[in-house]
Design brief:
7 helices, 127 residues, mainly alpha
Length: 127
């Protein structure tokens, strides 16, 4: 994926709109991965190159016409999750306990109490 191809689709407002509109369909893993990236992106300690990669991944998540149509039952967000996880593995050293806590709090705010095992499973795959 060429970073500049999807980076232009990322804005904070478009990310929140996508998550608010499709969070239930996307599921907690996808939303948690997006939130982790968002909070890393907003960390002042993170370098520009890392931020460009994150913005590209979030832009892909937001982009309405990605590789697998998001409304396709069962697999609609699998490509989004794969891209988000790939970038998370690349920037995993930037995931602090504070960033995880912010993402979990926001996730609980939107979904209510979430299955912590799912989140830990995702974290094990990236950290």
């Amino acid at each position: 994926m060429k970073h500049t191809q999807f980076e232009k689709f990322f804005t904070e407002e478009s990310l929140w709109n996508k998550i608010k509109k499709f969070s239930r369909t996307a599921g907690t893993k996808v939303v948690y991965a997006a939130l982790l990236l968002f909070y890393i992106l907003n960390d002042k300690q993170v370098g520009t190159k890392t931020k460009v990669s994150i913005a590209a991944a979030l832009g892909y998540f937001i982009f309405p016409a990605d590789a697998i149509f998001d409304f396709t039952p069962l697999i609609g967000y699998s490509d989004d999750l794969a891209i988000l996880i790939f970038v998370l593995t690349q920037v995993a050293s930037n995931i602090t306990p504070e960033i995880k806590e912010k993402a979990r709090r926001k996730l609980n705010e939107w979904f209510g109490e979430v299955n912590q095992n799912e989140l830990q499973e995702l974290e094990r795959g990236i950290i």
